[in-house]
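[Q] Does anyone have a clean C-alpha cell version of this?
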Amino acid sequence: MKRRLIPLLGALLALAPLCSLQAQEKKRLKLTLEEAQICAVENNRTLKNASLDVQKSQATRWKALASMLPQVNAQADYSDFLGYKLNLGGMSIPMNPSGTLAVTASITLSGAQVVATQISQIAAKMSDITQRQSEQQIKDQVRTLYYSALVMDETVRLLEENLNNLQSLYAYTEASVKAGISEQTDADQLLVQLASMQTSISSSRRSMEMVYNSLLLQLGLDIDTEIVLTQSLDDLLNTQTAAELLSREFNLDNNYNWQLMQESLKLSKKQVRSAQWSYGPTISAFYQYSAKTYFGKSEGFNTTPPNMVGASVSLPIFSSLSRLKAVKEAKIDYEKQLNSLADTENALKVQHRQLCYNLNTAFETFNTQKQNIDVTQRVFKNISNKYEVGAASSLDLTNAGTNLIAAQSSYVQALMELVNAQIALEELLNE
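[A] Here you go.
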C-alpha cells in the first residue's frame, strides 16, 4: 500500500506548482486597446444601466400602443338569496342561487393616445442615443486610461534610466574621492540627487498603480486581476491622424448631444399636440357576452341579456380654462427648447473651434518638447563625459540632470495633453 501511495504523492506534488501557476495565469490578462474597450463595453455597469433604460423605454412604447388595442376581460360571480322569493303583482318568483360568466371586449381611441404613442417612440430613440453616447464615453475613458498607463510606464522608464546614469556617476565620484581627485561634497550632491530620483520613481509607481486600478474599475474586472498592456505608445500614437482631425469639417448631426437636443425638441412639440388633443373626443365601443346558470333548482327571475354591444363618444366642453392654460404652457416649453437648441448649436461650434485650437497647440508643444528632450539628453551626456575627465563641475552635472528631469516631465505632460486633446475632438466629431 505504501509503495502505491509514494508515486501518487509524488505526482500530486509535481502537479501542485503547475496548478498554482495556472491559477496565477487566470488573473493575468493581456489586452490591446481595442480588447480593453470591448471588455469595458461588456462589463461596465453604467453601460448596463443604459441598456436597461433602452429596454424600459421599449416596454413603455408597447404599453402606449396596447392602450389603443382591444382589451378583453372576463368576470365570474355567484349569488344566493337564501330562499328569498320576489313578490311581483301577486306572483311569487323564487330567487334561486345562480352564477354568471361575462366576457367583455372593449376598445377606446383618442388623439391623446396616438400622441402618447409617438412620445414614447421619441423617448425610446433618446434612450438609444444615450446608450450609444455612454458607450462612446466608456471607450474614450478606457482609451485615456490605457494611454495614461503607457505614459506612466514611459515616465518610470525615463526616471530609471536617469537613476542608472546617476548611480554610475556616483560610483565614479566615490572612486575619485577615495583617490583624492574629487571632493566629498561632489559625491554628497550626487547622493542627494540619487535619493530624490528614487523618491520620484516610487511616487510614479504609485501613480501608475492608481491608473491601473481605475482601468480595472472601468473594465469591470476583479481588483486582483493583473492587466498587461500589449500595445506601446509608438503603436497607438499617430501624430498624422491628430493633424488630420484639424482639417475635418464639423457635422452637427454626428454629435450625440445635438441628436438628443433635436429629439428633445420633437418631444416638446408632441407635448403641445398632446395638450391640444385634450379638446378632442374619446370614442369607446364594447361587446359583452353573459351566461347565467342556476344551481339545483328551476330557473328563476333572469334579467341578464346574453349579448350586448355599446358605443360612446365623450367630448369635453368646459374646464374653466385649465386645458387652454395647459396648451399655453406646452407652447412655452417648446419655445424654450427652440432657444436651447440654438444655444447648443452655437456652443458646439465654439467648442469645436476651441478643441481644434487645443489640439493644434498640444501638437506644436509635443513636437517642441520632443526636440527639447533630445537636446537635454545630449547635453546631459556631454556634461557627464566632461565631468568624468574633470572638465565640468558637480554643479554643472547637477544642473544638467535637473534640466533633463524637467524636460522629461514636460515631454510626458505634452504627450498626455496631445492624447487628451485628440480624444476630446474625436468625441465631438463622432466619426
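[Q] Thanks! Anything notable?
[A] The chain has a mean pLDDT of 83.
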